[in-house]
Amino acid sequence: MLNRLYCAALARALILADFLRHLVVRGLCASVAFIAPLARADGDVAAPGGRR
User: What are phi and psi of 39, to 5 degrees?
Assistant: First the structure.
């Protein structure tokens, strides 16, 4: 009985960990996709509309 409970708890923990890992990776990709166009070659961050 307890063995099944432990197995079920472990399975849920692994599923939750995988879900959280996917959320973190998705968040990192989104932040890189947002920041990458703003970064310039000289290391400065460009203005969102470009400089005039």
Answer: -80, 135
